[in-house]
Amino acid sequence: MKQKINLLIALSVIALITLSVVQCYLVKTTYNYKVAQFHSEIKEEIGNITNGYSDIDSAFVNKKELLYKQLANNYILDKKTKFYIKSALFQNQYRSELTRKLQLKFEREIPNLTINFAIVLNKFVIYNSLKKADTIFSEKPFIKNKLYGDLASLDNAFLVRNYVGTTSGSSLNQDYKLLTEDSMYVSVIDWETIILKRMRMILILSLFSILTLITLFVIAIKALIKQKKVSDVKTDFINNITHELITPLTTLGISTKILERKDIRENDAQFNSVLHTISRQHNRLHNLIDQVMANSLGEHEIELQKEKIDLETFLNAIIGDFKISNPKTYIITDFNTAKTTLLLDQFHLTTAIQNVLENAVKYGSTTITIKTALVQNQFRISIKDNGIGISKNKHSLLFDKFYRVEQGNLHNTKGLGLGLYYVNQIIKAHQGSIAVMSDLGKGSVFTIMFQV
Ligand code: ADP
């Protein structure tokens, strides 16, 4: 059964992990899709705004073409170097003006987004009259080749459009054509937040479904473990009660057989002795059944007959009786509560305290110390023993019905696991509480607390 539960837990954990991984993969795919969708929206909007640049400033387009032609002339006529032409291209005086104009345009047309951009020149090629290409430069998009814009790097930017321009000119009666290619890169401030906002519903739903699954899984496993414990405890109880019943029943059986013998019936002394045995075993059986019946009541079903009790006198009476039946146990009392009286059920409370004292002896104690104290409106009775003690991980189970520390068939001490359950029910019925402090081999202290 335990192996089955472990296997079930392992399989469920694997299923949960797989589901979480699949969920993460789906969320990541959606994220990528949303990013791509966002990029194409921006591309479309910007594409509409910057269609050919001429609608931004046609004068600028003319000036730009003039500059390109002038540089082409410089190259053809003045034999300036390619390096000179390239540097002159990037030192154009329209840089800041066009940057500002484009920024303004973006702000006006796409007011809900903050956009940074860069237009980088990738190619500057002169075709002479024979259509022979003379490449001044041709490079991949590179931020150092920025014509205009406010971006400092292309790392987080995405390509919006490539623009290829051609201009015709003539120099020294020779016609030439200019081919330029530039790319626009854009970066949207806080784009991650925008995407996350768009994915809000998906994120919430997937998180919710995963959390619900984990919660249901934990609840199911807890219920399974609890069920297993209950079934173990019940099996133990049946073993214990069978064990307890078998002795009186066997004795009764043998006694009846003996009584059938004529010689015994004719001998008064022997007959009476067997009768005594039968009566003792009958009482024992009765007590056992009474114990089981009494402990089947919950705290709310117990009817208390409360009366005013002077606690120290009450405890002294219980200790007196206990000493008679346990003459070898040394009892120390340390009472510090003077004449405190409380409304309690004398009968039930006597049984409860007796149970704790009997347990102390049953589980190896030779000395018991009983203390009383008044602490912050609480009347405390602590019962300390020097018995075998209880390991800390068992403390929370001690007051459960039928629970015994020694489980399975390892019983050295007789019991049904009902003593402390009963004590707890009685004390709870009095609106009090009980706590245990103990460790294996270090004795135990049971503290009963009542509100004054
Ligand atoms: P029972 O004594 O019939 O087994 P109880 O409900 O009285 O049942 O006690 C539950 C378990 O708690 C016991 O089986 C025992 O292992 C442990 N226990 C109770 N009192 C003590 C104690 N004073 N010292 C050590 N172990 C104790």
UniProtKB/TrEMBL annotation:
Entry GO CC: plasma membrane
EC number(s) per entry: 2.7.13.3
Gene Ontology terms for molecular function: phosphoprotein phosphatase activity; phosphorelay sensor kinase activity
Residue ranges of every copy of the Histidine kinase domain listed in the record: 240-452
A Pfam family reported for this protein in Swiss-Prot or TrEMBL: HATPase_c
Superkingdom of origin organism: Bacteria
One GO term (biological process): cellular response to phosphate starvation
PROSITE patterns for this protein: HIS_KIN
Keywords from the named record: Kinase, Membrane, Phosphoprotein, Transferase, Transmembrane, Transmembrane helix, Two-component regulatory system
Known catalytic reactions: ATP + protein L-histidine = ADP + protein N-phospho-L-histidine
Top-tier EC class: transferase
SMART domains: HATPase_c, HisKA
Alphabetized InterPro entries for the sequence: BphY/WalK/GraS-like, HATPase_C_sf, HATPase_dom, His_kinase_dom, HisK_dim/P_dom, HisK_dim/P_sf, Sig_transdc_His_kin-like_C
Regions crossing the membrane: 201-225
Protein name: histidine kinase
Source organism of the structure: Flavobacterium xueshanense
Biological classification of the source: Bacteria, Pseudomonadati, Bacteroidota, Flavobacteriia, Flavobacteriales
